[in-house]
Design goal:
alpha+beta, Enolase-like, domain 1, 2 domains, 7 helices
């Protein structure tokens, strides 16, 4: 199947406030709540089919821009700006493959973001969320799972023309050889202040889900850490 080409008809951005069931700690940050961005994409394939796709991501402060002088609200607005720039860029393009849309958009996005005070990681937040929503829409339009879409290279991923580690690699053959993993690992992020045992818990959530590393072991029986 040739990679389908499509136009991005619309990209709608919504938000909701989310409170985490347990504190999430990274670096010097302890995150207990943040907005969550939702993106709904509508695409039209060249054969006239249309489909909607969606993606969501937390607007986590200090995850993309770790400048301690920037407030959480400024971090949120940085990510909103990144998403707004991406929405404008993707909806302005003519029909292309999913990979083609990304390839033509990400470099200008970084340059536009830099002019607006965004570092490259923050600037790429918007395109990453858009790409996920577009891939969801593409899979729905073609009535295919994401796994099969990647195996068949529905996004149209090609090796870069410039010299890189991927130059000369037959990406379509590589993707076609992918097989599902036999199992997946239950992951518990253990930081310096994360609870290891019940003795480390000062206040229980009591929602039926694991709250300590020992709880995870008892529930899922992982063998490696």
């Amino acid at each position: 199947m040739a990679p389908p080409r499509f136009r991005v008809l619309s990209l709608r951005h919504l938000e909701r406030d989310v409170r985490l069931r347990m504190p999430f700690r990274f670096g010097v940050v302890t995150l207990t709540a943040a907005p969550q961005a939702f993106l709904r994409a509508r695409i039209r394939l060249e054969d006239g089919r249309e489909a909607d796709g969606a993606a969501a991501e937390m607007l986590a402060p200090k995850w993309f821009d770790k400048n301690p002088a920037i407030t959480d609200d400024q971090n949120f607005n940085q990510l909103r700006l990144s998403l707004a720039l991406a929405r404008e860029a993707y909806t302005a393009r003519e029909a292309d493959t999913a990979f083609g849309h990304w390839l033509a958009t990400y470099r200008p996005q970084i340059e536009k973001g830099a002019r607006r005070g965004l570092n490259s990681l923050t600037a790429c937040f918007g395109p990453a969320l858009v790409d996920r929503a577009l891939l969801d829409a593409l899979c729905r339009a073609c009535d295919i799972s994401f796994y099969e879409a990647i195996r068949r290279n529905l996004p149209g991923i090609v090796a870069p023309a410039r010299e890189t580690d991927l130059t000369g690699l037959d990406l379509s053959a590589f993707l076609a050889a992918l097989r599902p993993a036999r199992d997946i690992a239950a992951r518990h992020t253990v930081g310096l202040v994360d609870p290891i045992s019940a003795a480390d818990v000062t206040e229980r959530v009591n929602d039926g889900l694991p709250e300590t590393l020992e709880d995870v072991v008892a529930r899922y029986g992982p063998r490696w850490f």
